[in-house]
Amino acid sequence: MITKRIIPCLDVRNGQVVKGTNFVGLKEIDSPVALAEEYSRCGADELVFYDITASSDGRKIFTDILTETARNVFIPLTVGGGIYEVTDFDRVLKCGADKVSVNSGAIKDPSLIGRAAKLYGNQCVVLSVDVKRVNDKFTVFAKGGRENTGLDALDWIKRGIDDGAGEIVLNSIDTDGVKKGFDLEMLAAVCEISSVPVIASGGAGCIEDFITLFRTLPKVDAGLAASIFHFGEVAIKDLKAEMARNNIPTRIV
Fold this sequence. Notes:
Blueprint: E1 5-13, E2 16-21, E3 24-30, H1 32-42, E4 47-51, H2 54-57, H3 63-72, E5 77-80, H4 86-94, E6 99-102, H5 104-108, H6 111-120, E7 125-134, E8 137-142, E9 147-152, H7 153-163, E10 167-172, H8 184-193, E11 198-201, H9 207-216, E12 220-225, H10 227-230, H11 236-245
Parallel strand pairs: 1-4, 1-12, 4-5, 5-6, 6-7, 7-10, 10-11, 11-12
Antiparallel strand pairs: 1-2, 2-3, 7-8, 8-9
């Protein structure tokens, strides 16, 4: 049976990991390299790095931090932020990333997903989607949740999968940083139409939220979180032990 993955997310701004609520009110936490090394030692299955202001600032992603992290961390690393061209995929992969996450760049140029998938394989292309309810409709936002695209999220995700995205990260803006549980309604809708792995992001506040996620939606492949890991509210070791006790397949180190 395929194990469920636990993935810490490191949102990086100006070389520091930051976290806020509903994508705003960002506060600095720690060095991304130090945190990445600690999570790797503690049993994280993968890591996600987002340069969260690269897209809105119109600049390239932090390659120095990425290179240093890849030298010291030996679990899969997904990197996103400021990915607008196939050359950005090439640059990030050469720095040591295993997968590249694209969001605003794909919205600006939807052909980017297909072109990157043909060059590097579907497994390297992750479509990250920031979604918020607008008039009871799941709506895609761009540029770190700052810009309403008007796109229907389910239609956009289906198109991304058809074009070659090998994985979906669903970021619920409505539950981001609120710590009251994952957005199960939104995730259920995405799992219904997805033929590739779905990663749940936004809303985790305690161990039980992950247990509820995997029990309620067995099609979800992974749970991603930030602040509860960063601030020591949930230890990955304890989370995985509880998953095992609940017969949820997980990798124990």
